[in-house]
């Protein structure tokens, strides 16, 4: 069996949002999300780390071509999210809060449409240097998959 390796690529994008749940009252949203519930929203310079893994190809010596990985991320994520208002521009967030957790799920689903099956291992989405989410695709529902691809 060939050795297994993991490759990681880090990209950055900027996006605005407002933390607000349609399932809570305005007061509950203010109490839960604090200043992040500001009616005018706020923005982040997000950092996305995408990890792919698999066997090293005997012919190429690679798990995946880094140029391909760069293109997959750009097409699936950066072209869609960079300099956007998540709550206004991305249909996935019309009925769910645009938390970093939900953003990670959205990104994962988008990446599964461009990264070849079996390569994507996990993503790490940081909204600040101190706050990040790690997601590896567990627990996704068919509904979430369909909503994300609209």
UniProtKB/TrEMBL annotation:
User: Which class of enzymes does this protein belong to?
Assistant: lyase
GO molecular function terms attached to this record: 6-pyruvoyltetrahydropterin synthase activity; metal ion binding
Entry GO terms, CC: mitochondrion
Q: Which family does it belong to?
A: Belongs to the PTPS family.
Put simply, this protein is called 6-pyruvoyltetrahydropterin synthase
Pfam hit, one:
PTPS
The pathway to which it is assigned is: Cofactor biosynthesis; tetrahydrobiopterin biosynthesis; tetrahydrobiopterin from 7,8-dihydroneopterin triphosphate: step 1/3
Give the organism, scientific name.
Coemansia asiatica
What PANTHER family does the database record attribute to this sequence? 6-PYRUVOYL TETRAHYDROBIOPTERIN SYNTHASE, PYRUVOYL TETRAHYDROBIOPTERIN SYNTHASE
